[in-house]
Amino acid sequence: MSEILVADRLSKHFGGLIAVNKVNFSIMADEVTGIIGPNGSGKTTLFNLISGFFPPTEGRITFFDNEITHIPPYERVIKGIVRTFQLVSVFNSMTVWENLVLSSIRFKEKHVSLRKFFFSSAKDKEIKENCLRALKLVGLQSNAQALTSELSYGSKRMLEIGIALSLNPKLLLLDEPLAGLSDGEISEVIDLLKQIKKNFTLVIIEHKISKIINLVDRLCVMNEGSFICEGNPDDALCNPVVRECYWGKREIS
Amino acid sequence: MHYTIFYGLTIGAILYFISIGLSLTFGTMRVINFAHTITYTIGVYILITFVIFFKWSFPVGAVLAILAIIPIAYVIERFIIRRLYGDSLDYTFIATFAVALIGVDLIKWIWGPAPYPLSDPIGKYLILFDVSLPIYRVLMVISAILLFILLHLFFKMTIVGKIIIAALDDKDGVRCLGINVDKYFSLVFVMGSALAVLGGIFYAPISSIHPYMGLAILLLCFAVVIVGGMGNLKGTFLSAFALGMLMALTARYWPQGAETMVFIAMAVVLIFRPIDI
Questions:
Q1: Of A74, A102, A119, the CB nearest to B175
Q2: Long-range contacts of A143-151 (CB under 8 A, 24+ apart)
């Protein structure tokens, strides 16, 4: 397996607060990496650094051996780094189908031809197929014409993942995809992730460790901005430092 | 009474033209743009330069004024507003207010502080319900309604329109689609400024042209945007005409209170619907 993304001594400071502290981190192709850690340990900040939403204070990031440290988020998406958010991010005033069309259109801004000016260019066969594929994967076919604001939170989460998939990512970063979902919805999302993990390189931040333990190939544990442990999920969870950080000293003694 | 209603529609149309840009700028970029009406004022001064000084026809002056404002608006967005994205609202308020004040002084420096009169370019009247209505004002109201329909179609049917609607919902979400959303912010800003100038061009012949004309109408437009919902296009349209009508009706019975009434209406909306704002 080859490394597709490498973070080298990556740091992010917010004034005096060190959110991510000289992290060395790599993501292997076709692997599912889980990132866990207590609240405020720097997991989401790390995602924001990888996806370009925050500039790093120091360090560099390479993606397929090209440096991407200073390129804006939208260019990283074009290169294949796609993310979702902790609080679900979908376009509420559009229908489910329009959400997918907008993400499938692969709008190349430098070539705005008249044909691409109208949204009806979404009738292009290629775009339609891409949308249908994503719609089918996330199981929202019956809601295609529904207004997104009317969907349940779980369906919105599925749609957000659908949007991410329709962008054909090389690396998909999922920030707490199970947060705020019911047990039934959690199983649906887990089933979907199991289904897509064959085709994508996934990185998942999650609090519900038990839910993702069977999904991930590698587990990284963050605390106070650093990685305190990484490796096989079972080994990582048995690591005394991790147990202390999660359950306190009494538990391990 | 018919005339009062018609007068209300006229004010509503002007408020609508100017408020769209303000609403979109806040809705997409989260910038309270106090500099919005400075482009409106500059546009009107460019118009009178062509019409009064060069003696060109009104429509030609109007088109040139709108075209001239496009690069000016772009420069303001690119070098001032864009630096304020993501900053707190008070920073954006101070910076854009400074731009407005610099603009006012610049106008005084170039064109002088004295007001200019501009006459109704059509000067004909339409008799409707026994009331004679200036055709110019009728055109103004019709243009506002046409603009509303055109904008509705633009946001519904074009990709650019959909991207802007998506950015009103969630701009980071749009970035995550691989779209350079900042470019669309520039477009929204320039479009909003051009529409404000269009409002100014319509308003100029029925009011007086002076360096502070923009600041005078700015607060009314803020009231329109707050009542209509920031970034809500349909809301802006309805609120512009509702507040325009409120102003006209109040002016009929209590002339001094016309503007005050608008802010009372705004306060009532803020009290009863605080979540959207």
A1: A74
A2: A143/A96, A144/A95, A144/A96, A144/A97, A145/A95, A145/A96, A145/A97, A146/A95, A146/A96, A147/A92, A147/A93, A147/A94, A147/A95, A148/A90, A148/A91, A148/A92, A148/A93, A148/A94, A148/A95, A148/A96, A148/A99, A149/A92, A149/A93, A151/A96
Confidence class for position B93, pLDDT limits 50, 70, 90: confident
Residue A30 and residue A170 in contact, taking contact as beta carbons nearer than 8 Å: no
Q: Which residues of A touch B162 (CB under 8 A)?
A: 94, 98, 102, 119
Burial of B220 (0-12, 13-18, 19+ CB in 10 A): buried
pTM of the model: 0.85
User: ipTM value of the model?
Assistant: 0.85
B138: CATH: 1.10.3470
Q: What is the pLDDT of residues B99-110, one digit of tens each?
A: 999 999 999 999
Residue contact A94–B165, C-beta within 8 A: yes
Q: Which residues of A touch B178 (CB under 8 A)?
A: 74-75, 77-78, 106-107, 167
Domain count, chain B: 1
Q: Is residue B277 part of a domain?
A: no
Of A74, A89, A121, the CB nearest to B180: A74
- Find the mean pLDDT for residues B202-223: 88
For B230, the domain range is: 2-272
**Fold of the CATH domain A3-252:** Rossmann fold (3.40.50)
Query: Chain B residue with minimal CA distance to A103?
Result: B177
Give yes or no for a contact between A252 and A66, defined as CB atoms under 8 angstroms apart.
no
